[in-house]
Input
Amino acid sequence: MRRIGCGFQTKQKYRFGWFSMKLKLVGGDSAGVVTAYYMCSDPGAGPERDELDFEFLGNRTGQPYTIQTNVYKNGVGGREMRHMLWFDPTEDFHTYSVLWNNHQIIFFVDRVPIRVYKNTEKSNNFFPNEKPMWIFSSIWNADDWATRGGLEKTDWKKAPFVSSYKDFSVDGCQWEDPYPACVSTTTQNWWDQYEAWHLSDSQKEDYAWVQRNLVIYDYCKDTQRYLEQPWECSISPWD
Output
């Protein structure tokens, strides 16, 4: 496997907020190629990192893109979900966003919530809420796993592989040592007020549609991988 790629990151790091980017993904034959848009507490992807991931898994020409989301806490992941998309993400720009507060994490595509990850507030909680994160994006070769479990390899004759970005925006708590006041307040910022702790009625309708039609894989239902269901899977996203 060739190890090759490129990426960028923000100068600032944040703890909680709204983070959004428009992307147009690699067109044509992109098998083996992953475009990632994510948040991470360690620029070097260290072993104790927290992380929130969008990963767009490339395809053979004519096959649909797969979007994978994942959550890491203290270097441990394994919380993958995979979805189909209801559009071709290579034809135009679409908006991919994360809402992150101390109560929930929501992954959005064009303002449609595709995944809700709740804070269980238990001692064995797997919710990243302690470490500030930078925002990153990268494109890289992952043909050992990305397309059909690694069966489809990158066709380097199709290079270069290009993903395009625009309209990056943040409305969040910029980290300042030792501890910024905006981490604790629930009155000054919309992303940490009561309405942002739960899905709205219209968001619940959109989310239910996604769950019925677009989910390919959910770690919470993988009984071969997890003999005991991870604790956070018992928390309803509707609460």
User: Anything to note?
Assistant: The mean pLDDT is 93. The first helix runs from residue 201 to 213. The radius of gyration is 18 Å. The longest strand covers residues 14-24.
